[in-house]
Amino acid sequence: MRTALLVIGHPAPGSFSHAMAQAAQHVLAASGYRCVRHDLYAEGFNPVQPVPEASNVASDDPLVEAHCADLAQADLILVFHPNWWSQPPAIVKGWIDRVFRLGTAYGYPEGVGFEGVPQGLLRARHALVFNTSNTPPAREQAVFGDPLDGLWRTAVFGLCGVGSVHRRMVGPMAGSSDAQRAAWLDEVDALVRQVL
C-alpha cells in the first residue's frame, strides 16, 4: 500500500490549511493510500534543535524519530501552511531542520565530504505544498516574488531527491467567500489527483 505523509503547520485547528489537508486526505484515502497525518501544533512539535542534535543524524525526541521514519517511508508528501513574511511558520522551519536530516532525507556518496554535492534519499517522487496568504497574488509576485517556491522546490525537496514539486498559494483568505473557498478546495482535489 502506498503511503502519503500530510504535514500541517497552522496553529488554528479550524484553519483553511486544515481544510485543504482534509480535502487532500479524502482523495488519497479513496485512492487507496495509507495517510499519515502530522499536525505540528496539535502534536506540540518542538522546532528548536537542541545542541546534542547538532550533528543532525539522530534525536532523543521520540516525536522527531517518528517524523523521520514517516518521511523516509512516504511515497507522496503534502505540506500545508500559511505564508508568513514570505516564509513558513517557525514550527515548519524547525520541522525541516530536525526531520530532513542527514541519513534520512539526504546523504553524501562514499568519499565525499560535507563540501560536496549531497544526494537525495527520499523515496517520494512527488511533493505538494499548499499555502494560504492574505496578499493579493499580483501584489505578492510584484513585491515579494516567490521565495516559498525556491525553498520547497529547490532547497528542500529538490536537494532531497523529490523531482516533482507542485505548489499552490490560495488567497487572499481575509474576506474570501464560501464559494471561493469551495473552489480552492476543488483545486486541491484536482492537484492531488494529478500526481496519483
Give the tags.
alpha/beta, globular
Topology:
Blueprint lengths: L2 E6 L7 H15 L3 E6 H4 L18 H12 L2 E7 L7 H10 L6 E2 L11 E2 L5 E7 L4 H8 L2 H12 L5 E7 L7 H18 L1
Parallel strand pairs: 1-2, 1-3, 3-6, 6-7
Antiparallel strand pairs: 4-5
Element string (H = helix, E = strand): EHEHHEHEEEHHEH
C-alpha end-to-end distance: 13 Å
Q: What portion of residues is helical?
A: 40-55%
Structural class given helices, strands, pairing?
alpha/beta
Oligomer: single chain
Low-confidence stretches: none
Summarize it:
This protein is α/β, with parallel strands linked by helices. The protein has helices at 16-30, 40-43, 62-73, 90-99, 137-144, 147-158, 178-195; strands at 3-8, 34-39, 76-82, 106-107, 119-120, 126-132, 164-170.
Q: What does this protein look like?
A:
The chain has helices at 16-30, 40-43, 62-73, 90-99, 137-144, 147-158, 178-195, and strands spanning 3-8, 34-39, 76-82, 106-107, 119-120, 126-132, 164-170. The protein is α/β, with parallel strands linked by helices and 196 residues long. A 5-stranded parallel β-sheet has the order 2-1-3-6-7, sandwiched between helices. It has a two-stranded antiparallel ribbon with strand order 4-5. The model has no long low-confidence stretch (mean pLDDT 96).
